[in-house]
């Protein structure tokens, strides 16, 4: 999973005038040559801040996204599914670790990131503020939310920051299993008994509106966006990602005889673009700002884990330990 | 109290509604960091996979084993405290960083040489790979020796140097800890024959008249 789109407001646009023009030119030339930026290279403040923000939110999304699926481990139907669900959730938490480390190389400590997550100062993908009512909901998350994340991650893996690209390559390799596992689980339900079909359709109906918001609202094209695209921080627009997702997955949903709960969803044959009912962005804003069905629970669970584990970490801490940023 | 769809969460008896912000985590709450290198198969060089946070070397090894060698073939794992690794500046792609470094001859060697491990990054964005081991009296001397021993082949954009005694290396006997990795087919995409199921479903539907 689970990196949602660039759905949160960007860092304030810092005036690049304050950057050293020679260094900035060298930095931009490196990116233009297709070279990656490594942690000790000079980089503009805007680049650093925006990447920390993106990678950190991606990490939070992995760790929070593991909660709705993790809930279903104990109730997964059958031993094989339990093993697979467990392996997937473990992968997601591992992805969070990889991403936190990548963000750390840019200078924000893991302690600070975890505090900011729990205190609501930094966000995670909004879809995880919705509950997974049934096993079928968990299947839809495994398939379609992961699918959306992969669209995003494949694009970002080609970005300019070395540690983030390395982490994403590893993440994408592991995601191949998630996508197949999720698809298989959905196909199993959709081709099963009438009750199973009904369950998976109901879950799809519940998850479709959040899925359509997954990539975020249309980007406002600004100098800021152009700069981030030139620096290969932002690799594709939110709309491009959404279109690509619809192109790849709507046919796969339809071939199972399932329906998408949007009467306006169709591909315009002339433009080649998907048309759909505009998602409810007011609800999106309301939920992302804390007023969703599961926001409080997600953060409370995370906080409890942090607080109840604190004494173990304190007991293990070597008094001579000295923090050094990870190297790459 | 917070009521969840998950009874285990409900049983945590968490407060519902507004809660005061969590206190800032103290420094080192997440410990220090270690860098991990894995070996994909016998004879292959150890390659950098990423960092882990851990309270000591042994726990770092366990965490790295879970984090980096759980899903793909692995026969060896090395762990080094980040603090113990010396890093050269980064060169541009295509350059050889050894040629750019001014490595002065060290004064007469008083100390006994000891082994150092040398890791090369061949291209930005890729992973550092073990180039080999040199005997040296200091990090700088190790870089000198490495330049002689492995520095010829361009390009090398970055070098990491670490004393061998600071690297926790899995032993030959430890290899069996990875033998079950390939058995866990349920976490491989290839284990899910989705297309077969879809084809079968479509066939069945074709043969059943619409109701």
Walkthrough of the structure:
- The complex is a heterodimer of chains A (328) and B (211).
- Chain A is mainly alpha-helical and 328 residues long.
- Chain A has a single domain (17-316), classed as Up-down Bundle (Ferritin).
- Helices cover 61% and strands 1% of the residues of chain A.
- Chain A has helices spanning 21-32, 45-70, 79-104, 110-118, 135-157, 162-190, 194-213, 223-230, 238-254, 281-288, 295-316; strands at residues 266-267, 274-275.
- A two-stranded antiparallel ribbon of chain A has the order 1-2.
- The longest helix of chain A has 29 residues, at 162-190.
- The radius of gyration of chain A is 20 Å and the shape is globular.
- Chain B has one domain.
- Chain B is built from five helices and eight strands, in the order αββαββαββαββα.
- In chain B, a hairpin with a 7-residue loop joins β5 and β6.
- Chain B is extended and about 85 Å long.
- At the A-B interface, α3, α4, α6 and α11 of A face β1, β2, α2 and α5 of B.
Notable traits:
heterodimer, A: 328 residues, mainly alpha, Ferritin, two-stranded antiparallel sheet, 11 helices, B: alpha+beta, 4-stranded antiparallel sheet, 5 helices, 8 strands
How many H/I helical runs of chain A?
Answer: 11
Q: Which range does the strand content of chain A fall in?
A: under 5%
Percent of residues in helices of chain A: 55-70%
- Total domains of chain A: 1
Helical/strand content category of chain A: mainly alpha
Brief summary of the model shown:
The complex is a heterodimer of chains A (328) and B (211). Chain A has a two-stranded antiparallel sheet. With 328 residues, chain A is an all-alpha fold.
Architecture blueprint of SSEs:
The complex is a heterodimer of chains A (328) and B (211).
Chain A: H1 21-32, H2 45-70, H3 79-104, H4 110-118, H5 135-157, H6 162-190, H7 194-213, H8 223-230, H9 238-254, E1 266-267, E2 274-275, H10 281-288, H11 295-316
Antiparallel strand pairs in A: 1-2
Chain B: H1 7-10, E1 32-39, E2 47-54, H2 57-68, E3 76-81, E4 86-87, H3 97-100, E5 114-121, E6 129-136, H4 139-150, E7 158-163, E8 167-169, H5 194-207
Antiparallel strand pairs in B: 1-2, 1-3, 3-8, 4-7, 5-6, 5-7
